[in-house]
Amino acid sequence: MKALTATEAVAAIEAGTLTAEAHVRQCLDRIAEREPVVKAWAHLDPELALAQAKAADAASAGVLRGIPLGVKDIIDTHDMPTGHNSPIFAGTQSFGDAACIALSRDANAVIMGKTVTTEFANRHPGPTTNPHNAAHTPGGSSSGSAAAVADGHVPLAFGTQTGGSVIRPAAYCGVVGYKPSFGEFSRVGIKMQCHSLDTLGLMARTLDDIALLRAVVLALPPVPVRRDGATPRIGFCRTPIWDDAEADTRELLERTASSLAATGATVVDVSFAPPFHGILEDHAAIMGFESTRNYADERLRNPDKVSAELMDGLTRGLDVPLERYVAAQRKAAAFKAHVDSLFDELDVLLCPSAPGEAPKGIEFTGDPRFNSIWTLAGTPCVTLPAGTGDMGLPLGVQLVGCRYEDDKLLSTAAWVAARL
Amino acid sequence: MKALTATEAVAAIEAGTLTAEAHVRQCLDRIAEREPVVKAWAHLDPELALAQAKAADAASAGVLRGIPLGVKDIIDTHDMPTGHNSPIFAGTQSFGDAACIALSRDANAVIMGKTVTTEFANRHPGPTTNPHNAAHTPGGSSSGSAAAVADGHVPLAFGTQTGGSVIRPAAYCGVVGYKPSFGEFSRVGIKMQCHSLDTLGLMARTLDDIALLRAVVLALPPVPVRRDGATPRIGFCRTPIWDDAEADTRELLERTASSLAATGATVVDVSFAPPFHGILEDHAAIMGFESTRNYADERLRNPDKVSAELMDGLTRGLDVPLERYVAAQRKAAAFKAHVDSLFDELDVLLCPSAPGEAPKGIEFTGDPRFNSIWTLAGTPCVTLPAGTGDMGLPLGVQLVGCRYEDDKLLSTAAWVAARL
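The joint structure predicted for all components is written out below.
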């Protein structure tokens, strides 16, 4: 049986043809079948999930009506452990819920369990495999969320992005990933890596589901994805690292740009102004300076329980001078204004979601740089599944919207998705 | 005996004429004497403080050499409860240390205890009184930190500012308060109210102590406060709410501007451009929108344990439309650029630290608006003690520096302080 989207399940529950309990049981069955291979879950308590589903059925209300939701394991839940994929936090349980969890519960979501993250949403990987081919990474750091949504364990999941931790794994696993405009979603109860970059993001199998969960996290009424909008003006932005994309990805993007133009969209080439060609170095400086201080407690009180990979990054972060950090912050502010200005004449930017398909092996979760650019810009981003690459694994195309115009981005993405 | 500053105590400890243990005992004696009236401490464990002091004496190292530090009770400590002045959190203890605590311990500070905060660093007050007159508020929300530093309980303390929660209580209590440039200090482990505004700040009795603790929190070598700088160019910024300041404060500022000009400083009047005259409304929109979502867990799971005062504010926050929030964020970005531009020709801005002396009674912690402006601007700010007002309570003058030029602000403030 095909897994239902959240929107489909909500409609069926509201129509009385499905109960939240039955739907959650279907999802739990799918997990039981697939988890030995996919390994998407850091914590799963079927009884607790079913109890929530029964309560949602009894309440017979809420935007999410008992729909199950996967939660990246750096996001606090008062009734489940939050492990951060770190021996430091193994088995610890937070006192409260993260704000996004509290708001989801208020909409009668079922908090299904905690999905595998890389260590502290950084690089050191967890055990999750790509559901399309277990010999490949699902991407990271929101590895389990992407794999669980792709594999039909849950229709919705939370991830977070500091570099490319939502859009990249979503693209690798062939689902829709969404990073909102910086600042709109609360980060309370989410382990902080870089306060200037960290963004809560969403994963689902459709744009309509993304819009639904966005409304829940904003504590606002859902804004339906419009499909009657004007033909969009699209900027094809190869970014300064275009040459680092693999051939199949470059071809996908060129083909997509051409075919969208053929369907009537305005498509123009867009480049960053020269001062911003090295913007990824500024992202790295900010991430290094902030993360080594933000992880001070782990680094100083439990150095033996931090992976060599992370400790190396934190140590390098200490080498970023304050002056370099400040210069990067000033450059980032100018970059945000520059990217904003690109939207004076455009509705959306088109660029790769990742350099290519999910790399082989699960040790390396892939290159985040096609996403880090936009995390720094603070723009809303969506990745849409767009076929497969040379190895038969999913490829995505990334659409970037103007800051604070997230609803418009989702509607423009729907226009594009209908023509992919 | 006059209480030592941190700089004095470090020097004496390094010279071998004082031990950290003896110094901490002096501070504990002072607390024992005064706490029944001042009520600055939410949690104090003298044995734990002395154990830390002995360890610091044994280590004989670190920038802070066993100097005791007061910690606002919304900042996590792994070995003491963090109560947030809320029945929701009474007696709860965090798993880890806040980053600023971990970095302070790394410098061999003694974490003396937790200082009284208003409920969640919002408005609902704690029991702390003004050490200069117990019938008056010490200000808030960092009430206990300001009172403890002013009254000689500790030479250093952490506070936080979302509106005016560091600069105002510091001014009311007659100490030096400092809010750094937004983004430089880690906020990990500090209860989040508004991610666009919350700033960790410092309180001490001298600028040298501020510079010392700033270095510790940045994990960088101390930058001494320079006293050999050029005569500063000062902008006298009355702000759009000048008429709301009390007469003695307006007179203090006018007199200060005149006397600094008389000592050779360039002093010019500075005003915000007209689009920013209502900037406080944008601060309020951002604070309302963010705080009601950031406190979702408290508001939704424990509504009966949230004060009526806070719940009222959070409910009003839900009325701020997303569009209003976005407009406020765009205005804030333009305001930051505008304030930055004021420093093309100036070194520092001079303005009130608060509308006047500490109000009578402890129910109302005072008006934060002279600070909220600069919290939104992201600029570094210092308040310096500057005599007393009509009721005999401390008044302060606030100096505002260019974003990311905190060291320069502290040195300019020293120039000003020498002439007050």
